[in-house]
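Materials and Methods. Structural model of Lysine exporter LysO family protein. The 301-residue sequence of Lysine exporter LysO family protein from Salinivibrio proteolyticus was retrieved and submitted for structure prediction as follows.
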Amino acid sequence: MFSGMLLIFLPLIVGYLIPLKRPQHVHWVNTLTVRLVIVILLLMGLSLAALDNLGSNISTIGVYAATFFVCIGGANLLALPILDKIWPTDTQGHQHKLKLSTMMSESGKLIAAVFVGLAVGLIVEMDLSWVDTASEIILLLLLFLIGIQLRNSGMTLKQIVLNKKGVVIATLIVITSLPGGLLAAWLLDLPYHHGLAMASGFGWYSLAGILMGDGLGPVYGGASFIVELARELVAIMLIPMIISRYPLTAIGYGGATAMDFTLPIIQSTGGIRCVPIAIVSGFILSLLVPVLMLFFLSLGA
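The predicted structure was written out as tokens:
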């Protein structure tokens, strides 16, 4: 059961053991990771094009995505405001207005990659039997690079443990997301371990979509990608609106993106005091995405 899981974990672990001392090496790893994500999302689009009954499968993806998004996000938002009530956090936001186009540009590129792959697969007649093998090889390399990124993110174990709010937020997101995934699986009549895997994306839409697609096929991969992308897009709009009254809710809903993509929004609208909390919670959730998702996927092996 766990042999396949360990095989996929291995490059992540090996990558985490590699410290990078030169900034240019870190930059090179970050750049290569982004490019590989785009490549593998192009392959995801090709996989969708290869599906029989594409129209009905796209409809299925939409239903899956909507159900999981509502169940998981609803569970998160039911619990996070309670944390704000019992553990108030001061904010000192500057209320700078960040351009929506700037914040969403990276998301747009990744969405475009999937659609380009889908369009190429539909328009160009080609043998697509190689796509799954290519995706698996690139996935292993991607996990290796992600391990390096996590090791060189600047976070030490001491910094993580000392920031109790960040740890509690990440814990709360996990323990509310998983029941949300179970509820969605029950509503959709899906295997419960599939629901738990779908609930373990925590906003990291590129990796979540890739892992789910590799483990369960392009329908699950597409649905997971949409669920986590929707979380990020909603977070972009929600954070400036609620962070002054519910800072921990705003940070928590951003999930894994709180340490990178939504961090500038959190800092600008919530102030510098929110930054360490966001980085710690986002780091923990980012680390847990491949760990939990691969574990739950392995339960059906």
